Amino acid sequence: MTNAIEISGLTKRFGPILAVDHVSFSVTQGEVLGFLGPNGAGKSTSMKMITGFLRPDAGRSQICGHDMDSDPLAAKRKIGYLPEGAPAYGDMTPASYLKFIADARGLTGAKRAQGLEDAIARSHLEHVLYQPIETLSKGFKRRVGLAQAILHNPPVLVLDEPTDGLDPNQKHEVRQMIRDMAAEKCIIISTHILEEVNAICSRALIIAKGKIVADGTPHDLETRSPYHNAVTVVTAPQALEDMVALLKALPDVATLDIEDQPDSHGCVKVTAFPQEDRMIINQISAALQGCELPVREMTVERGRLEDVFRQVTLSDAHNAA
Ligand SMILES: Nc1ncnc2c1ncn2[C@@H]1O[C@H](COP(=O)(O)OP(=O)(O)OP(=O)(O)O)[C@@H](O)[C@H]1O
Ligand SMILES: [Mg+2]
After folding, report:
1. Which residue has the least CA distance to atom 24 on ligand 1?
2. Suppose 213 and one of 114, 240, 252, 312 were both cysteines; which one would form an S-S bond, judging by CB atoms 3.0 to 4.6 Å apart?
3. What residue owns the CA closest to ligand 1's atom 17?
4. pLDDT tens per residue, range 236-288
């Protein structure tokens, strides 16, 4: 099967800044790829090159087998793109703007009518169709941007921060919309919201200083976190010392992190980190059952994407994962 997106060696320099440095990856139908990285990492620049809005200095982007450089019209027909900030013509209404985009996309007849109807319904724009876009709230502007991206029902979607600036309800709706389309499309989204990666992405790619520094499923990445399989025990302040002694004595516990300032419920907590690749939850449960120490809560940590993100983007991590 042809990869829906095939990127190889994409490179872009702006004067002295090497914004994107030989980025290569491919994405297949059914994948939702989360594009992560600090501000200025090169996410938007990569997306502009993938979608043919910016010409790369080197490298190529192929969409459903069509080369963006040699056959841009065929490649662009297969893509819906939500640019950063979702720009649109402010004095137009969503209705007139979407009709304009439908014409620009060359949609006619039943396909045009169906495309408009579906895009408006999926983006929940029915109630603001005739209001100038510049008077819409940020969330609705973003939905107009999403509607224009999906209007021609493309197999590939490239969405640059689709939930940026949305309230929690709208974030939820946009995520749901992406999830609903995921099986039949190939989707790349950039985001700064790491919980979004767990919520909707089947794969995450982290870039820093224009290079890919990590690539894997959210679970793969979480396992790289020092918190992977760590166990946090919440207890009473008077039991803290004994709890620490008990956890420290367990053979598979490597280190402890102690929070001895009581929280709003008057509780303190200890996180036990396992020796490499060990599961410590059973050992800890067994040890706690044999004693009288109070346990208010006990959780096994899956790993924290935030730590992994910091680890791979703050270190001078320029080795491809
Ligand atoms: N048109 C341009 N002219 C000059 N420099 C640019 C231009 N566009 C981007 N850059 C630079 O390229 C680098 C990558 O920018 P880019 O917008 O791709 O980052 P990003 O990962 O999308 O960041 P953010 O998370 O803030 O959106 C930055 O250093 C930016 O200043
Ligand atoms: Mg950006």
Report:
1. 39
2. 312
3. 44
4. 999 999 999 999 999 999 999 999 999 999 999 999 999 988 899 999 999 99
Task: Report which ligand 1 atom has the smallest distance to the Cα of 84.
Answer: 27
Tokens 């941007």 appear where?
145
| Tens of pLDDT, residues 190-221 | 999 888 998 999 999 999 999 999 999 999 99
- What CATH class does 5-222 carry? alpha beta
Q: Which amino acid is at 124?
A: H
Phi/psi of residue 301, nearest 5 degrees: -80, 135
Beta carbon of 12 within 6 Å of any ligand 1 atom: no
Per-domain residue ranges of the chain: 5-222, 231-301
- CATH fold of 231-301 reads Alpha-Beta Plaits (3.30.70)
What is the helix (H) or strand (E) element at residue 101, kind and residue range? Answer: helix 94-104
For residue 310, what are the contacts with CB-CB under 8 A and spacing of at least 6? none
Residues 6+ apart with CB under 8 A from 280: 229, 230, 231, 250, 252, 253, 272, 274
Ligand 2 centroid, distance to 246 Cα (angstroms): 48
Can you name the residues that pair with 36 across neighbouring β-strands? 206
Question: Strand 203-208's sheet: what is its strand order?
Answer: 79-82, 156-160, 186-190, 32-36, 203-208, 211-216
Q: 6 with 79: CB under 8 angstroms? A: no
